[in-house]
């Protein structure tokens, strides 16, 4: 190149990052007027909200985390971004859950060829029910050896508690009869873990049928406590029993103090022998 002379030059540019654009279905937007999304990488985070809700963001290729917030619920989805691709992400609600399941599972459908990604936001409903199985046991079975649970995705543990068909549950709405849990001594306990209540759209509600050999329930003799991931257990407040003296089974409902935990653990502990429980349900309040 000479001084004072013009020379033609050409410059070519190639995009080396990945683009992300986020949208919501009309149904999702109507159901969740307060909503936002962000994409997080180790280098930083980019928010898609307000005037920037429909922006196209650009990120380094590699791992990223999509964070979707709707009301008080928050969901994270891991993504792998490739260079020179624009990812069109559409967010929708999960269909209504099937009764008897804890419906906080995530369905993600991706079509990398078209670079279109659909994220199904959890419904926020919880519908967990444990009836101690459909097949009636012939002899009392220790919790650790029992394999016929109604909800196999949860984890069950205990000591001094057996699955038994004696004195089957009755006299309350939804009583399943058949098997129940019997606490055979003071200090006997039963725990349920692996319940994901983190995306519950409203306060979780715990219900269970309860009976004891003395036809009455004393709050101090059968306690229920909850933990977020196995740390400190917080006791739930249970009111005095008001059932008639001739009614051994009744349903107890607890709606205060249950956390929106990703690994909710529920613990039942007996301080007297002879207590039975059945039809343990965790749902979201209407």
In short:
Helix content is 2%, strand content 44%. The chain is mainly beta and 286 residues long. It folds into two domains: 18-121, Immunoglobulin-like; 127-284, Sandwich (Jelly Rolls).
Question: Can you put this structure into words, describing what you see?
Answer:
The protein has one helix at 26-31, and strands spanning 18-24, 35-41, 44-48, 56-59, 62-70, 73-81, 86-93, 107-111, 116-121, 127-130, 141-142, 155-159, 161-164, 180-183, 189-195, 204-212, 222-228, 234-235, 250-254, 264-270, 275-284. It has 286 residues and is mainly beta. It has two domains: 18-121, Immunoglobulin-like, CATH 2.60.40; 127-284, Sandwich (Jelly Rolls), CATH 2.60.120.200. The strands form four sheets. Strands 10, 11, 13, 14, 16, 19 and 21 form a seven-stranded antiparallel beta sheet that branches. Strands 4-1-7-9-8 form a five-stranded mixed beta sheet. Strands 12-15-20-17-18 form a five-stranded antiparallel beta sheet, with no helix packed on it. Residues 97-114 have low confidence and may be disordered.
């Amino acid at each position: 190149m000479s001084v004072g002379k013009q020379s033609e030059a050409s410059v070519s540019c190639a995009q080396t990052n990945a683009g992300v654009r986020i949208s919501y279905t009309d149904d999702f937007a109507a159901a969740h007027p307060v909503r936002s999304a962000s994409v997080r990488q180790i280098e930083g985070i980019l928010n898609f909200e307000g005037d920037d809700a429909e922006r196209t963001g650009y990120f380094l290729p590699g791992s990223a985390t999509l964070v979707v917030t709707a009301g008080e619920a928050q969901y994270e989805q891991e993504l792998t971004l490739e260079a020179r691709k624009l990812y069109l992400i559409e967010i929708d609600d999960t269909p209504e859950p099937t009764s008897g399941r804890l419906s906080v599972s995530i369905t993600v459908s991706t079509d990398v060829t078209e670079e279109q990604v659909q994220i199904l936001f959890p419904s926020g409903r919880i519908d967990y029910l444990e009836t101690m199985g459909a097949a009636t046991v012939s002899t009392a079975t220790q919790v650790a050896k029992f394999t016929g649970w109604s909800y196999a995705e949860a984890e069950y543990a205990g000591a001094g508690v057996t699955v038994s068909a004696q004195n089957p549950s009755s006299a309350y709405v939804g009583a399943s009869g058949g098997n129940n849990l019997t606490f055979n001594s003071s200090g006997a306990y039963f725990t349920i873990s692996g319940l994901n209540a983190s995306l519950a759209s409203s306060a979780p509600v715990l219900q269970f049928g309860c009976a004891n050999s003395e036809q009455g329930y004393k709050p101090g003799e059968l306690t229920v406590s909850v933990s977020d991931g196995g740390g400190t257990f917080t006791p739930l407040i249970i009111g005095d029993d008001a059932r008639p003296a001739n009614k051994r089974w009744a349903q107890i409902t607890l709606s205060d103090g249950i956390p929106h935990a990703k690994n909710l653990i529920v613990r039942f502990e007996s301080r007297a022998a002879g207590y039975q429980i059945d039809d343990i349900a965790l749902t979201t309040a209407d």
